[in-house]
Amino acid sequence: AMALCLKQVFNKDKTFRPRKKFEPGTQRFELYKKAQASLKSGLDLKAVVQLPPGESINDWIAVHVVDFFNRINLIYGTMSEYCTERSCPIMSGGLKYEYRWQDDSKYKKPTKLSAPQYMCMLMDWIEMLINNEDVFPTRIGVPFPKQFQQVCTKILTRLFRVFVHVYIHHFDSIINMGAEAHVNTCYKHFYYFIREFSLIDHRELEPL
């Protein structure tokens, strides 16, 4: 019953954004399948995140960034009805942490936004990056840009803030939906991954 309930929760197609998929037949698709298989086999999550022998670190990071984007997108999408301008006028993680939005186009300076606005800007921004062939090349033999890992650090740092907000402000909704185990597993997987490759400044991790 629990599995069924989870399936309903996470199949509501409430993803905030269309899912990015890897093309079958590409190296990255094979890597994605490998990562998913070891995840499903119930292996220790610390082992699951380790770079498989002979694989490129950038490919491995790319596959995970896209997968985490899809999954966190889904988690936030299922609870976005509880995260409103009224309930969350500030994008925060408790009383101590407030996150401001900044990008290269509309918000050149760090700007206070409500949580739903911040989430919207964030998901749009990540989606634009992962669909940009110059940043996340999908064709075999096309190299990653020099600043690829820096871009991924920025994406993952901001995705971590979604966990912070959801855990601190909406945990009761997660429990009510029966999605606690799913969210916890996703968070653990994310956490072990960023620690394995030192992808987020440890100060960012303090709220959780």
TrEMBL record:
InterPro entries: MOB_kinase_act_fam, MOB_kinase_act_sf
Keywords: Kinase, Metal-binding, Transferase, Zinc
PANTHER family named among the record's database cross-references: MPS ONE BINDER KINASE ACTIVATOR-LIKE MOB (PTHR22599)
SUPFAM superfamilies, per the entry: Mob1/phocein
Record bears the keyword Zinc: yes
Positions contributing to Zn(2+) binding: 83, 88, 165, 170
Keyword Protease belongs to the record: no
Gene Ontology MF terms: kinase activity
Name used for this protein in its record: MOB3C kinase
